Amino acid sequence: MASVHSTTYELLRRQGITTVFGNPGSNELPFLKDFPTDFNYILGLHEGVVVGIADGYAQASGTPGFVNLHSAAGTGNAMGALSNAWNSHSPLIITAGQQTRAMVGVEALLTNVDAANLPRPLVKWSYEPASAQEVPHAMSRAIHMASMSPRGPVYLSVPYDDWAREADPQSSHLLERRVVSAGLPGDALLADLLEQLSNARNPVLVLGPDVDAAKANTHCVTLAERLKAPVWVAPSAPRCPFPTRHPCFRGLLPAGIAAIGKLLEGHDLVLVLGAPVFRYHQYDPGQYLAQGTRLIAVTCDPLEAARAPMGDAIVGDVGLIAAALAERVTPSSRAMPTALPLPEPVEQLAGPLRPEVVFDTIDEIAPHDAIYLNESTSTTALMWQRLAMRSPGSYYFAAAGGLGFAMPAAVGVQLAEPERRVIAVIGDGSANYSITALWTAVQYNIPTIFIIMNNGTYGALRWFAGVLQVENVPGLDVPGIDFCALAKGYGMQSFKAQDRGQLEDALHQALAQHAPILIEVSTLAPQN
Ligand code: TZD
Ligand code: CA
To answer: Is the terminal CB of the chain with fewer CB neighbours within 10 Å at N or C?
Structure first.
């Protein structure tokens, strides 16, 4: 008779899931026992790092990331990372070991009390099976729930004595199941949308992360070119859905209500694809949309559709809808938008370097299909202006704004994309939330390039303090951290770059080798 253990591994195998991202404890050892040789285990030293790596891997590969955490404490450590995964529709199957069934009731050490409730509301589905025999069925549900549109993280708590039990013989049915979502709207709805686009005098596209997740970037290029429409990226962008040097590209929308309303003024139709409407940040009260502007959003997520404060929404498959619109839209006779001017080069040879110089240097030296992770919070706008992003899957940023995402996600993205170079640009503040990601990169020889922008401060918070007009705030500086020494401690090669020449040399060296590397750049803090 098959055990719960062997049935579950067979189920994962059949679904193409053979990598486990984890940090183990006693409750998890029976699951990890006799770990199959066709599976890989990627160890992270903190659960925020484990989920961050799995999130990057799931987003870049488009396949579910399987995570194994330790009970309540491990889950708690992962909650910040889970807030990002929830907001980026990342398909993550997060499992946690529970105490043995006989001792859950007495709350023995390492019991996950009310386990299914712990990760809510940051999961699509959360469960602890009522019996050992139910474990394979619950795992099957978890996989399908995470993978079905809208994708997202799910949570499964499994008492550790369940793994050695006999599986229900009917579990074999689970091995054969396929569940797919079908999401193209009916002809009438599509025809109506096409007519509105054709009739619009001055339409504009606003694209979000789920365009990139659906690999619909080229469909959006065709759509924009046929409509001759400008293209904005939806605010607080976690991914890059459109090539940033394309003539239609207008940049990243600001994250304020009034600012967006004003920027979109004059357009009679705003078509939003694959983004919430909108992920605002700073409170900038005003009109959501100017008089005479209509908005239609296409999203995979009913929650996003329901909570938008204005406009219509269509819930469906963003990739299929983008492809159908691109193919069928009537080409416009309007003039093609003209490309944005390239940013002015900044002459500076000696450091501390202006962030512009860092980005220009990276842009000059990095391969054209490099993948960027961004967690340098005060320089996001500069990054979008100065780094050309051409290919799908070229940019990732914490979708909920939770720091500690980009370092581990860069490791996961690199695992999923071994042919491309991954460059993570990380602030000196942000680098401390998930610094142990360096260790995983070293141990598994994952050749991510980490660039630390060391300006000694929480630059973005200094800017925000200005927006909120609050003065004399403590805790905004982070001086005295030697990132090269930290890298050395985790076994990683590192360079300090004090000027442009040193940065160039370090980047060339990093790109010439197949090993992770950290480059610490002294940068100027934003002026405020
Ligand atoms: N903690 C977590 C988990 N997420 C957060 N977003 C913050 C705290 C608050 N926070 C920001 O939103 S930006 C920021 C903090 C602390 C400063 C990051 O500083 P940095 O980058 O050095 O990484 P800059 O370029 O100096 O802003
Ligand atoms: Ca900083």
So the answer is: N
At 267, which CATH number? 3.40.50.1220
In a domain, 57, yes or no: yes
Same domain, 231 and 315: yes
User: Does residue 127 contact residue 142 with C-beta atoms inside 8 Å?
Assistant: yes
Closest ligand to the CA of 405: 1
- Best residue among 82, 282, 403, 483 to mutate for probing ligand 1's pocket (most ligand atoms within 8 Å of CB) is 403
The one catalytic residue in 28, 225, 304, 356 is 28
Host domain of residue 360: 355-522
- Please work out whether the CB of residue 414 comes within 6 Å of at least one atom of ligand 1: no
> How far does the centroid of ligand 2 lie from the alpha carbon of residue 195, in Å?
48
> pLDDT for 288-344, tens place per residue?
999 999 999 999 999 999 999 999 999 999 999 999 999 999 999 999 999 999 999
Catalytic (active site) residue 265: no
- pTM of the complete model: 0.98
Same domain, 27 and 166: yes
**Is the backbone peptide bond immediately before 121 cis, with ω within 30 degrees of 0?**
yes
C-beta of residue 459 within 8 angstroms of C-beta of residue 427: yes
Among candidate residues 5, 22, 46, 47, the one labeled active-site is 47
What separation, in Å, do the N-terminal and C-terminal C-alpha atoms of the chain show?
A: 69
Structure tokens that stand for 471 in this block: 């003065």
Q: Does residue 394 sit in the same domain as residue 487?
A: yes
Question: SS in 3 state form for 29-61?
Answer: HHHHCCCCCCCEEEECCCHHHHHHHHHHHHHHH
The answer to whether residue 527 is domain-embedded is no
CB within 8 Å of 298: residues ≥ 6 apart: 271, 272, 273, 274, 313, 314, 316, 318, 321, 322
CA-nearest of 112, 103, 334 to 201 is: 334
CA angle, residues 94, 96, 99, in degrees to nearest 5? 165
Cβ 372 vs Cβ 387: under 8 Å = yes
